[in-house]
Model the fold of this input.
Amino acid sequence: AQSVSQHNHHVILSEAASLELGCNYSYGGTVNLFWYVQYPGQHLQLLLKYFSGDPLVKGIKGFEAEFIKSKFSFNLRKPSVQWSDTAEYFCAVTGGGNKLTFGTGTQLKVEL
Amino acid sequence: ETGVTQSPTHLIKTRGQQVTLRCSSQSGHNTVSWYQQALGQGPQFIFQYYREEENGRGNFPPRFSGLQFPNYSSELNVNALELDDSALYLCASSTSYPGTDTQYFGPGTRLTVL
Done:
């Protein structure tokens, strides 16, 4: 069975700080990887996704993530966070099937 | 906004009752998935419907059932509600089968079971 682990449950950063959120998955086959974001009071939105090709993927709002197959990781990065990035971030994976398996999420708070 | 809509927004039920939640897919999407998101947790896959048939199911008991209609809208039914069923229920739609495409989520239905 596939699983996703997000190491940081709560992260607090100051504006302009750099962000890296960890995500590791467990699955033996080919995977598709996603980062979703849930802003306060809003629904889950897709930030970025990896299906194949260049392992460095760029998403919306300046976010990017790197797929490292040997480490089973798909970490999310942003060079300089803004107050508006305050949200909950979920890493998710599909592999050999049709269901998304999510991590437990990381609550990011960006302080002015 | 994704174009996926869910109703109702909030719902309060008592233990043992039955509930029906509804979802309208984004235009052009023929696949609907349902997820349960308990407080402080990531969404958990309940099941998926494609062309009106169940196409994959997570670790949820049979009292969780669903339907998909010819217009691709969907219902989630939960019988004999338990306190632990209190959660945000999310519907997601996508275009293709199997899960190689992106799922787009609705705003969810917040179910409280007393």
Observations:
- Chain A has one domain: 3-111.
- The first strand of chain A starts at residue 3 and ends at 5.
